[in-house]
# Entry
Amino acid sequence: MISSMTKYSFILLNGQQEGLLEKLQELGLMDITRSVKPIDEHSYQLLSEIELMDGLIQGLKNTSVPEGTVPELIDGDIVRLSGGMLMRYADDTNEIKSLQKEIASLRLWGNFDTTLIQKLEEAGVPIHFHCLSNKQFNADWENEYALSVIEKDKNHTWFAVAGEDPLPGEIAKPECNVAEREKELEEKQKHYDRVLQRIASAKERIPELKSRRAEALAKLDLYLAGASAVPAAEDSIVTMVGFAPSDKEQSVTEALEESGVFYLKEAASVSDNPPIELKNNKFVGMFEVLTDMYGRPAYNGFDPTPFISIFFLLFFALCMGDAGYGLVLILAGLLLKKADGFKSLAPLVITLGAGTTLVGFFLHTFFSIDISKWEIFQPVKFLFLPDQIAGFAGGMVLAIVVGIVHLCLAMVVKAIKQVRVKGFANSLGTLGWTLLIVGGVIVGALALVGVLDAGLTKWIIIGIGIVSAIGIFPLNNLQRNKFANVGLGLWDTYNTVTGLLGDVLSYLRLYALGLAGGMLGMAFNDMGKMILGDGSNFVTWIPFILLVVVGHTLNIAMCALGAFVHPLRLNFLEFFKNSGYEAEGRNYNPLKK
# Structure
């Protein structure tokens, strides 16, 4: 549901806006029309401070500190200290990796005396270091040159040559021996361990960084709100506009009266472009994130979230189509509750898992196994979806029926909205189409279940057709010529019939995705049975379990991806198009601390 908004217009002496904005920030209910991005050096500095805090918080979280590390207490400015420690951590990590790599290379040459090599070079006997593949290395060189093989593996040979050296494969001379580098690595590791102790202490102060970030964000929000003030009367006064929910009007009015500012208030209209606050119950509120992916509704529109909450859940469950997979999603949702950054998504994942479990039971599928054949479920077998309905696959018929209901609901919503916005007389065309399609579907459904006999059904359909035709053709637009209306009505008829047919067929994807996931899961089950055999050999159970677990894990991941994207498409395209939904609103973003 879209909350109604009250518009507040402020007229202030230049310089008063800062005090008012601080008061409104404490109140936390007023959405001031303001800039949404930095506009000058001060706002850029505040944004840079926020980004710095984000980087430090994320850096500290990503830094792995071994268990058992005793934190070393650090005092002082946490921003400066944590920034310096993260830089030292990165430098030490890179240096340790570089030293380890160099030591591995030096070990090939052994712990030689670097001063002796220097003395030989000064005496005119330089030492050359080489590395060649075993195919390139010639063993006769040992008899022709002062050559000594240092190391050899299955692929390469490392050797040194004293004096004259015309041989290929020469590499850079090691600057030191392995003992020197190992000592350097030991010192660097000690420094690295101390840095980790200080980072462990900094991790305990992450809440302090978050608090600093929140303060900077509040300052930026306040500054941008103040920058929206419009100078007037030669800059002696400024004007500002804000919006607050109408049900909070008393709290806002009391706060403004205390501040002593001059303001005007009135009910917000569409032309004011007020912010949109969605007000839904806890269940529907979980799905507001999906509405925001498309865009908030116009102020005179309707909130699609209640419809999305029901049909997205149903579509997702049909695409997954497996009670076992639903239980896995519930478990995943419970684990997300413990993961920072994903806690807000946990209730939605659990809800989707519960819906999948329920629908999967109705489709009698558990980890791609048909449970309708299990003896334990025979007493409740009447709850399962039949494999065949009127000669067609039960899942296919269910997908089409759900799609028709979804589209009919969209058309009813569109008709109600249009009557509310344009009036009854200017909505006769839309009402005609709604009566023809929705009324026809209802009458057809009643006839199929035997409530209406054939004769009565025929006369009701004829009556619906005549009344609908009057609205669709001659009266679809009262401001146009009647003959023009008939021509445009024929064109609308062609577009509506062909469009609706394609829209209805789009819902077959619900059946197709569920079928594909089920077939792939069955394939993994069959391969597992082939490996397991009769189960008498214990050794075969290990590959059987691995194959089934890995196979179903991959299948769940692929099914979940399809079950998210395609139901979203059916809501964003088919439902929104047929309901006339317009995402023209902006989010309600109250100024607050």
User: Anything to note?
Assistant: The CA atoms of residues 364 and 372 lie 6 Å apart. The two ends are 26 Å apart (CA to CA). The mean pLDDT is 84. Residues 282-579 form one domain.
